[in-house]
Write a structure and sequence with these properties.
Structural class: alpha+beta
Number of strands: 24
Distance between the termini: 73 Å
Radius of gyration: 29 Å
CATH architecture of the largest domain: Beta Barrel
Number of helices: 14
CATH superfamily of the largest domain: Nucleic acid-binding proteins
Length: 486
């Protein structure tokens, strides 16, 4: 399927949309003030070793210490990879300098996740300088093609090669000169990292991952890409130079967008961003999804809504679930949702229908560049799946918790606040003896005291023998109030 890539660039932000047949399939956003860290290589310093968790905190110069688990600690010091790695307290000590790479950005209150196995991505290959293994991307499924790519690469490597490589999907059809150029580029990057590790003092950044625009050329653009439209002359010049140096085939597809309307507005991407921040996703048939993202997992609920197009009720449910499977896969890409995902499809009586829906979901997810795994239906009829999470989701990047509800998504009713105030006045009347209690609250709460809740307020005044006055504060939110003792 052919695609267009849209790049909206300003000095403070770069936004990229992948559009197929007029529909936005992926969204990527990078801000200058909060650039992602995944792929960055640091010379870190061990700040704390936790034997009980078999983990360590590493200072890499960020606000929060990064996290390294023993499973991500490369066992190259001993020269052999062990099935049962040595305890982390035998391998690390406080103050030790350590070469590390970020594999997960800081998420919420968690620091960055690290690995000591360094990997450097190129256009065709991923270089593993500590591992002599030669691998091929799992997305290349044809075994003959896999063996051919592996043998072609091995012929280009010297007999004493100590590092390893993973062949990327973009390497299919590439010639020897392209392979050699990629190998040379990756080795040069690795030498720069090693030189920096000997020269710098921890903590220090040794290698920064490419900018979003450059990563798009390296990781996303491919044979199916018809054009890469860039709305900034400066960004176009930078990307053109990068393409000419590392991926000449992409240089001819870079084009300057010169239209009067904003690029994202013209292609409907702004509307897609707004939809991707909403809980509800409407399906063309009349059904809809409800997507809730929490700290632990993401839940997706499928509903028939107004869809009545099937021959019978079972057929309606089946068709809604099939459409939902494709919509879910697309929403995961657009919203960049990762971690544990639970999907509550509409209950299906037929096991054949359940299997077809699962197959349709796996087929839709196969187009995703991010690795995912579908476990199937549980005993409760829910579909469990996971999707690799490395960067912040779109919602976490663009939104923050509501200061009124503190992220709950709900606020106390005006009546609930009224009754809280009445209880608070009753408590304070036992401790203090003012001439008057004054309630300062939002318009909604004061209105309720003047109308439906006037009787409880008057009763309380008689009970405590004090006058209770009311005052509207227009700046107060519904849950905010003060009780002033006059």
């Amino acid at each position: 399927m052919t695609e267009e890539i849209l790049v909206n660039h300003t000095a403070h932000e770069t936004r990229v949309a992948v559009v197929q047949q007029g529909a936005t399939q992926e969204l990527h956003i990078e801000r200058a003030a909060a650039r992602g860290l995944v792929g960055n290589v640091y010379l870190g310093k061990v700040s704390r070793v936790l034997p009980g968790m078999q983990s360590a905190f590493i200072d890499i110069g960020l606000e929060r210490a990064a996290f390294l688990h023993v499973a991500d600690l490369w066992q190259s010091r001993s020269g052999t990879a062990t099935v049962h790695p040595a305890p982390i307290e035998r391998l690390l000590f406080e103050g030790q300098p350590l070469l590390v790479q970020v594999i997960k950005d800081p998420l919420g209150t968690k620091g960055a996740r690290l690995s000591t196995q360094i990997s450097i991505a190129g256009r065709l290959l991923v270089f593993l300088p500590q591992d002599p293994h030669i691998g091929v991307s799992q997305r290349i499924e044809d075994e003959t093609e896999r063996q051919l790519l592996r043998s072609r690469l091995q012929k280009l490597l010297p007999a004493d090669e100590k590092g390893g490589f993973i062949v990327r999907t973009s390497a299919e059809g590439a010639g020897e000169p392209e392979f050699e150029a990629d190998i040379d580029y990756l080795r040069r990057r690795w030498r720069q990292i090693l030189d920096g590790s000997r020269r710098e003092t921890a903590p220090a950044l040794l290698y920064q991952e490419l900018s979003l625009g450059q990563r798009v050329l390296r990781d996303i653009a491919g044979e199916s890409t018809l054009a890469i439209l860039v709305d900034s002359p400066e960004a176009l010049a930078e990307l053109s130079e990068f393409a000419r140096t590392y991926m000449p085939a992409m240089a001819s597809r870079l084009r300057q967008y010169i239209g009067e309307r904003p690029l994202f507005e013209l292609h409907g991407v702004e509307g897609e961003i707004a939809k991707a921040l909403s809980r509800r996703v409407d399906l063309k048939s009349g059904g809809y999804l409800i997507i809730d993202q929490t700290e632990a997992m993401t839940t997706i609920d499928v509903n028939t809504g107004g869809y009545i197009g099937g021959r019978n009720f079972d057929d309606t449910i089946f068709r809604t679930n099939l459409e939902a499977a494709h919509a879910i896969a697309r929403q995961l890409r657009v919203r960049n949702l990762g971690g544990i995902i639970i999907v509550d499809f509409i209950d299906m009586a037929s096991s054949e229908h359940r299997e077809q829906v699962l197959q349709e979901l796996r087929k839709a997810l196969a187009r995703d560049r991010t690795r995912s795994s579908v476990s199937g239906f549980t005993s409760l009829g829910l579909v469990e799946m996971t999707r690799k999470r490395t960067r912040e989701s779109l919602a976490h990047l663009l939104l923050e918790p509501c200061p009124t509800c503190e992220g709950k998504g709900q606020v106390k009713t005006a009546r609930t606040v009224c009754y809280e105030i009445l209880r608070e006045i009753q408590r304070e009347a036992r401790q203090f003896d003012p001439k008057e209690f004054r309630i300062v609250a939002s318009q909604q709460v004061i209105d309720l005291f003047l109308e439906e809740e006037a009787q409880p307020l008057a009763t309380l005044g008689d009970l405590i023998g004090k006058r209770i006055a009311l005052q509207v504060e227009t700046l107060y939110l519904q849950e905010q109030y003060d009780i002033v003792l006059m």
